[in-house]
Amino acid sequence: MIRSSPLRPSVCPPRCNLHSRSNSYVPKLEPFSRSKFDRLTKDPPLIQKAENELADYCSTLEGDAGYSCWRAYFQLKDLQIETPREDVERLILQAGGIKSLIGCLHGIAGMHKGRKEAEKVLNCNSIATKPCPVPDGLPKSREEMEEEEEARMPDSPFTRLLRTKGSSPAWYSPVPDHA
To answer: Where along the sequence do coiled-coil regions lie (predicted)?
Structure first.
């Protein structure tokens, strides 16, 4: 460390050259009195800005937190497709920050997923779509029994003879009495 004394002026290290500063090295700050039109034309849109901030934040995370963050990033992309732009901007403004925006996006994506599953169930119950499978073991309804009775073929003379005689065919074994 170089010390300055009253007899000797302070000496800058060789990389510090005070006289070589030019305006290109000094960052220009935007004036606070920019008009709304200037802000709209120069700044990226709110959704784009939120995407950029979310991508920057996600790139710093690792593991499950990073996975959750990137999932929220793509959920934001999907949300832009599904909902109007004003609603997405309102969500970003209401979230208040990146971390809360991630939670909001996960919640909204869950609600959309639940709504889509409910629509599938409703569509499954409608007549126009493919019917849902009926579980086994339910008793047949009256209409189903009448349809089966009408669809039966008429008995042959041999079948009528066997029914009146009371004997069963050789391949048929009756249910045991003890069951």
So the answer is: none
